[in-house]
C-alpha cells in the first residue's frame, strides 16, 4: 500500500499506542547543501504522566513538548525500512525513552510512505546514510536540548533497508561497481539500482560513515548483496543483529538477510533469531484500522504474539545499548 491511504493508516497506528513516560517532539531538519529537508520526531525521558500528544496531522503517543528529564543522555538514531516512516518503530522508541535514552527518527527523503520515487534507487541507497549523519548533526547542534545529550554515547537502530543504512553508517562500503555481479540474479534485475549500476552510473554523493555511532542494533538488513564481506571489513562497533524466520520467506523478505550479514562481518555480533516471526513482526503493533488497511505488515504467523515479543525485543535492545554505550559515558 502506498501514498495517502497508507499514510493515514500509519497515523492511526501511531495514535492507537501509548507510552509510559516518553516526551515527544516533531523535528524538521532544514534543507542545505547536504540534502533536502527531512521530517522526523524525537522521543525522550519525561517525568510527566501519559497523555496523547498531537502535532500537526499526526497523533504522537507521549507528552507533547514535555520538558526533558536528565543530562548526559545517550542518543539513539533510527532508520526505517523501505517506504517506511519515522514512526514505524514508535513503541521501540518510546521504550528506549522510558529507559533514559533520547531517540530520534527521520523519514528518509524519496523513500518513505508518502514520497517513494527513489525507493531502491542508487541515489537513495547511497544517500540514506547521509540522512542519518545529518540527523546526528542536528541532534548535537540545532536541537533545543542538544546540550543534554552525551555526544560520546550514540547508538543506531536500523530495520530492513534501515539495517543496511546502519551498516553503512558504521563503516560498511556499498559495492557500487559497474555491472555489480550480484545484480545478475534474476530476482534483482527489476531493481532500479541494478539497472543504474549496469549502465555505469555512480552515486552523486558518496555514502556517509559516522564514527560517532558506537553501537548498532540491526534488524533484517537488506539489500545484503551490496555489502559483500570485503566491503564490511571496516565495521568494528558492537552489533546486535536480529533475524526473522526464513520459513516465512514466501512474503519475499522474511529471513533475509541477517544470517548472511552475520557471516560476513569481521567479528561476531550479538545474534538473535526469532522463531516464527515474519519480517514485519519488528514493526510496532497495529491498530484495528491499520490491520484492516495494511494486512501485509500487520498479520503475524499463527501462534506468534507480537505484543509479547516486543516486550522481550525492547528489553534486549535496552540492555545492549546500556552495556555498550555506558562505556563511553562522560564523567
From TrEMBL:
Signal peptide position in this chain? 1-21
- Presence of the UniProt keyword Hydrolase in the record: yes
Which keywords annotate this record? Hydrolase, Lipid degradation, Lipid metabolism, Signal
Question: Which parts of the chain are coiled coil?
Answer: none
InterPro entries per the record?
AB_hydrolase_fold (IPR029058), UCP031982_abhydr (IPR016986)
Any one GO MF annotation of this record: hydrolase activity
Which superkingdom?
Bacteria
This chain's protein is named Dienelactone hydrolase
